[in-house]
């Protein structure tokens, strides 16, 4: 994709510049000589050749290949309603079902995040004299849709503001983990000192505590 962000509560926050098309379609984050790979819309549903996973109401799952409204698996056609599948998830798109569009059709860009967030769109103009970042107009000349480095920085700055809170939470988690590790290391060091015959006064002085506080904290762990 692009920029690696924080992972908080199991949710990844990876950012990238999402190409936009005039009909509302968005790029999937992959480009090649064929152009820009178009992302599936949530309501598009599977296409022939896609590998899908059916999840039924009882929690059972089954995987197969989508073909003309049915799912073909190792045991033939899988039921699409027996037990009532509650979810049909595309787990691997068929290459022949992919939609690619030429870079020239890109009408703008928006900052995106893997959590589903999207920023405010930026419009594409083809003449440098028409570019105006303050008015959210960015210029890309020629057949490609790659932004200039300065413009890419402008777009991704919105994603960085989006993840600021998540980044702070990740920093809190990391600091808490370091503190817990330091506490365990201190406890182990105190146990070693006690076993070696150190007094509570000496341990307290080394730990920056009073003798009474040190004794209350660690004596019960001996």
From TrEMBL:
Domain of life (superkingdom): Bacteria
Name of protein: Uncharacterized protein
The species this protein was found in: Geodermatophilus pulveris
Lineage: Bacteria, Bacillati, Actinomycetota, Actinomycetes, Geodermatophilales
């Amino acid at each position: 994709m692009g920029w690696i962000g924080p992972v908080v509560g199991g949710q990844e926050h990876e950012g990238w510049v999402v190409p936009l098309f005039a009909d509302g379609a968005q790029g999937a984050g992959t480009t090649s000589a064929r152009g820009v790979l178009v992302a599936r819309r949530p309501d598009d549903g599977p296409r022939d050749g896609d590998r899908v996973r059916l999840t039924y109401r009882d929690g059972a799952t089954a995987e197969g290949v989508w073909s003309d409204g049915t799912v073909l698996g190792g045991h033939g056609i899988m039921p699409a309603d027996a037990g009532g599948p509650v979810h049909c998830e595309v787990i691997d798109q068929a290459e022949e079902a992919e939609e690619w569009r030429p870079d020239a059709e890109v009408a703008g860009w928006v900052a995106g995040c893997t959590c589903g967030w999207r920023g405010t769109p930026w419009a594409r103009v083809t003449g440098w004299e028409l570019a105006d970042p303050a008015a959210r107009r960015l210029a890309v000349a020629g057949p490609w849709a790659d932004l200039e480095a300065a413009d890419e920085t402008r777009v991704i700055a919105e994603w960085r503001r989006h993840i600021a809170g998540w980044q702070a939470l990740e920093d809190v988690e990391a600091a808490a983990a370091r503190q817990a590790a330091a506490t365990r290391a201190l406890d182990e060091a105190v146990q070693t000192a006690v076993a070696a015959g150190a007094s509570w006064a000496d341990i307290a002085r080394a730990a920056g505590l009073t003798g009474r506080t040190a004794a209350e904290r660690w004596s019960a762990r001996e």
